[in-house]
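User: Please predict the structure of the protein below. I'd like the answer in structure-token form so I can feed it into my own downstream comparison script.

Assistant: Understood. Taking the following sequence of 138 residues as input:
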Amino acid sequence: KLLYNNVSNYARLAITLVHLGEYQAAVDSARKANSTRTWKEVCFACVDNNEFRLAQMCGLHIVVHADELEDLIRYYEEKGHFEELISLLEAGLGLERAHMGMFTELAILYSKYKPGKMREHLDLFWSRVNIPKVLRAA
């Protein structure tokens, strides 16, 4: 911990702090490292340890990358944390860097786990959703 802090290797420091169970400090180090890989590792560790508030903070830095979104969704679903995943994506929709994949994946999650909310979501964001992909999933 001291070594990585002294050499300013915040990515390694974040992972070390995760292993020590210091999740808040790990999130702070991940913020300084500002690397997608570090954000993912810290986020997954927070999910594993039911630190969903911290996991959401990390997740918001991941969902804006379309190529990383699928891994994040798969991880949350494998662990059975559907509600937390939906709230993460809902929070992500308000971000400046929100993209079509986020709207589409949220529609798919609604179709699987909260069918009642899917209609409202599609009414609001129909222009930002990949309709054929949602239809295939539903």
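That's the full token string. The chain is about 80% helix and 0% strand.
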